[in-house]
Amino acid sequence: MSKLLAGKVALITGGGRGVGRGIALALAAAGASVVVNDLGAGLDGSPEAERPALDVIPAIEALGGRAVADGGSVADWAAAQAMVRAAVDAFGRIDIVVNNAGILRDAIFHRMTEQEFDDVVSVHLKGCFNVSRAAAPYFKEQGGGSFVHMTSTSGLIGNVGQANYSAAKLGIAALSKSIAIDMQKFGVRSNAVAPFAWTRMVDSIPNETAEQKRRVDSLKKLLPERVAPFVVALCADAASDVTGQVFGVRNNEIHLFSQPRPIRNAHRGEGWTPESVIDTALPMLRPAFYALDRSGDIFTWDPV
């Protein structure tokens, strides 16, 4: 890999395992100095004795790179401020933030607890805000920077038993777009990426029926490290015109996702009554209604 990010400093959250680890190593291979953040929590956010961020540092150093570990929680405002300062203290600046940290607490909606909802939104959506907001003044001051936020087709399309996760991930796409709009005048860009990868985050998918087994076998072909090259490219100066977009990376496939726009219109000069909505507007709009698709209903082909 060429040194596309030579002289730059990156912070990756959730960088100790899976997709995050692959991105951390790729950032370093491209020449960036890296702060590898990972709380070392279980999938449900429960504490673990492991410190996976520390395990990534020797791998980065073996590539000839520089890195430091951080164990703070992205859900905590002060910890997010501290991890950004760690980058500046260790390497003198910060140029890249990759918001990758996440947890799962899946439950069918009518059984989901308030705590399960709050915990997932706190880590994913609030965590993206906390870390991005901590880096924003540095990006503004230096006149540039790149945010990459991990979204998911669970939010962009839909999935079963993930109302908390889906809400957070769709919120991340909107947050990314808002950051892009607000900070474009400072040369700061912000994009969202939906990674397709077999990691701990998807290892809990049901695997009982023949159809479920077939889907899991297909998902196991999705390699976490295939996401990293695209993220590195987004952070490079050569992609300085790319902002406010939502992408997907699925092994060797790169997708650009649509963003909500009006697709059909109904107008009535004299205004609407409930009856005319039922009799006229809904029949006009109904042909363009979306089905209750899940991610697997849209991405039906095997990854290659």
Automatic annotation (TrEMBL):
One Pfam family linked to the record: adh_short
Question: InterPro entries recorded for this chain?
Answer: KR_dom (IPR057326), NAD(P)-bd_dom_sf (IPR036291), Peroxisomal_Beta-Oxidation (IPR051687), Sc_DH/Rdtase_CS (IPR020904), SDR_fam (IPR002347)
Transmembrane feature ranges: none
Q: Where is the Ketoreductase domain?
A: 8-204
**Where does the record locate the signal sequence feature?**
none
- SUPFAM superfamilies found in the cross-reference section: NAD(P)-binding Rossmann-fold domains
- Entry-linked Gene3D superfamilies: NAD(P)-binding Rossmann-like Domain (3.40.50.720)
Spell out the family assignment given in the record's similarity comment: Belongs to the short-chain dehydrogenases/reductases (SDR) family.
Q: Know the name of this protein?
A: SDR family oxidoreductase
Protein source organism: Paraburkholderia elongata
